[in-house]
Structure formats: structure tokens, C-alpha cells
């Protein structure tokens, strides 16, 4: 796998779910989630091509623990598409929690992919819903634009970032996760599992600080 070069015309930066509800004080806060914003902004300024994802759930989404009687957040239930972790209500469409972090320099983004808007299915990956079949359209967009090398950053390392990276690698993209520009939930060892899965899939694990030094 060739080294990622941010100035390459076929390189793109994908910023995953850097939204208020995933930052401290939010409904599903990731510890230190806001700490990565300055570094992500430096990356956004360095890459010619930038894509953002935005968790965008309708009220009463099926992944919310509140829609399952007797269930608490972070429990796992079986859905038609497999196991699903239940979450606190978060990133509800049109609410402040669903907005990008106020300090994120997001306006340079060429595309914003909204995910999780289908009420009956959750979506971690930037490329597919959690049924692993329903595409978001991102892969087609990237291919039409000639973007083959991807750097991923954002929240959370062990869920939406990792799922996106695994799909990107499976789809043939040269994929790097810049770990210092991510933060993890680490639910029952999920961070170590995600790192191992990414490495086995051929995803490079790098550092944004070196890339923008």
C-alpha cells in the first residue's frame, strides 16, 4: 500500500460524525471527542477533497433504547439484519445535537453523507447501512471523482470510523485511519477489536500529526 499523500489529486479526507451529540455534553458523548477538532481542521485545510458524514436519525429510531421496552442503552438486541447495540437517543434530525461541532471547519466539504435516516435500520459505515447491503452512494461518488486513496478521521474509532474503513478497504480503496484524529467509545473492548479487524483487512493505521507537520 502506497503512503498516503494529502496533496495527491486522487486522495480524499472523510470526516466521520464530528457532531455535538458525540462530543462532551452530548447525548452519546465520546470521551475527548472535541479534542480532535483542531487537528481535523488542519487536515481539512490540507486536503483538496473533503467529505463529511452526519448521523441523521428520525425521532423514535429503532436503534434507540427508548424504542425498546425494558431495554437500556448499550444493550444488544437482534434485528432483522443482525445484532444491534441500542443507544441513547442521539443526532435526531434538525436538533442541535445533530449539528456539526461549532468549531469544525466543515464548509470546505464537497459532499455531506447523511446516514441512519431509515427508521428501521442503523448505519455506522459511511458506505453501507448496517444490513451491509444498502449503499449510501459514497463509493460511486468517490469513484466518479477519481478518489482512490482515503484518510478517515472522526468519531468513534471503534464504530463508525472502523466500519467505514473496513468497507472502504473491501471496496478496493487505499484506506488509512489517522488514529490521533479519532476518539473511541471502547465498549467492552471494542477498540482493540476494531484495530485488529482493520489491520487484518489491510487498513493502514497512521497519525494525522505527521501528515500535517
UniProtKB/TrEMBL annotation:
Its EC number is 3.5.1.19. It comes from the Bacteria. Keywords: Hydrolase, Metal-binding, Pyridine nucleotide biosynthesis. GO terms for biological process: pyridine nucleotide biosynthetic process. Residues 13-203 form the Isochorismatase-like domain. Pathway: Cofactor biosynthesis; nicotinate biosynthesis; nicotinate from nicotinamide: step 1/1. One of its GO terms (molecular function) is metal ion binding. The keyword Lipid biosynthesis does not apply. Belongs to the isochorismatase family. This is Nicotinamidase. It comes from Hypericibacter terrae.
